[in-house]
């Protein structure tokens, strides 16, 4: 008898459980990745190659294909160097990190990097304003 009562409440509960799980699946749908991203592997938006964040100017695909295999493109973007230092960085990766010979792509890549990521204050973020400061505890 007790078993039947427990079963009865279990079934009642089960109803409410399934309601809450349908609420959950609605939330799940809200955060789903938009389908466009799936065919946007090489999408360029506002001059930026969306997948890597690299500026989509001449030669960027050569950079995507040779410079984002081992580390994120962010490592490339956050560095700003002149031609000599970009060249030295590439030589360093070839010597110590198994970066392959780039052949004539090397100049294409360096031209791209010097044009888009030169050693300037360009990369500096703008000043903070409207900050809610808080006290560390
Ligand atoms: C074969 C793997 C590989 C490839 C391909 C590669 N890198 Fe690297 N790179 C590395 C490794 C490993 C590091 C060191 C990462 C670390 O310190 O966390 C590095 C570091 C860097 C750094 C930071 C250097 C520093 O002084 O901190 C830059 C900039 C960079 N890579 C640019 C490039 C560019 C540009 C290309 C394309 C020509 C490229 N990488 C391709 C392996 C690679």
Summarize the structure.
The chain is mainly alpha-helical and 137 residues long. The chain has a domain at 36-120: Orthogonal Bundle (Cytochrome Bc1 Complex, Chain D, domain 2).
Describe this structure in words.
By secondary structure, the protein is mainly α. It has a domain at 36-120: Cytochrome c-like domain (Cytochrome Bc1 Complex, Chain D, domain 2, Orthogonal Bundle). The chain is built from five helices and two strands. Bound molecules: heme C.
Largest sheet data: 2 strands, antiparallel
| CATH fold descriptor of one domain | Cytochrome Bc1 Complex, Chain D, domain 2
What would you report as the Rg, rounded to the nearest angstrom? 26 Å
- Fraction of residues in helix: 40-55%
**Number of continuous helical runs:** 5
CATH class of one domain: Mainly Alpha
Mean pLDDT metric: 82
**Could you give the order of the helices and strands?**
HEEHHHH
Give the full name of the CATH homologous superfamily of one domain. Answer: Cytochrome c-like domain
Shape: elongated
Major beta sheet, strand line-up: 1-2
């Amino acid at each position: 008898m007790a078993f039947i009562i427990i079963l009865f409440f279990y079934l009642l509960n089960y109803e409410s459980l399934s309601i809450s799980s349908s609420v959950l699946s609605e939330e799940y749908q809200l955060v789903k990745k938009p389908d466009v991203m799936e065919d946007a592997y090489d999408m360029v938006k506002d001059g930026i190659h969306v997948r890597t964040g690299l500026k989509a100017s001449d030669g960027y695909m050569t950079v995507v294909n040779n410079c984002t295999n081992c580390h994120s493109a962010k490592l490339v973007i956050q560095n700003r160097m002149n031609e000599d230092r970009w060249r030295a960085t590439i030589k360093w990766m070839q010597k110590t990190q198994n970066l392959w010979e780039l052949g004539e792509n090397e100049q294409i890549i360096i031209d791209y990097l010097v044009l888009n990521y030169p050693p300037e204050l360009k990369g500096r973020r703008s000043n903070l304003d409207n900050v809610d400061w808080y006290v560390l505890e």
